[in-house]
Amino acid sequence: MSYLICEECGKQYPLPEGETSFNYQNCSCGGKLKYSSSSANEVEDKKKSASISLKSSVKWKGVFIGLLFLFISLIALVMVIFGNNIPRDPTNIPIKYLTYFSIFTIILTIAAGSVAAYISGSNRYLEGAINGGMVGIFLGLILGLAGGFIVFISGTLVFGLLSMTGGLIGIFPRKLFKK
Known about the structure:
Helices cover 65% and strands 6% of the residues. It has helices at residues 40-56, 60-82, 95-120, 125-147, 149-176; strands spanning 3-6, 12-14, 33-36.
């Protein structure tokens, strides 16, 4: 059923089936009437359902496994690059090692987002992006605790977007092999 709904007071005027207008120009309160294919209550229920769905789409198991994958991979990367000679002073790190570490960190962040999205078990891109993005948000939070507010904001944005991209990539196998 469709309705005319007052923009001022919210009063609803049901329309006969198949009608898109009615004899009313304005509401009894003087407000302008707006056409809606569903009642105001149904629209509100849909909004609530969407917000609940968004909250429930975070699968913490997938996010945790994605973070675990990222941290283990980063520790292994440091061990491969530096071996037993990990510099204690950051100024002693050669620029080529920092470049390698940066490139591999970007790749591993995308991969961690993919792992989180795949483990979440969803076939929907939005859920994949949310679960993958949570990995980058937590990484930004951890970096922010060590480096301050600016590092938190920039790290959350950069790593959140990278891991969100990975989350979208992590949904592809489920989409391809869905029965």
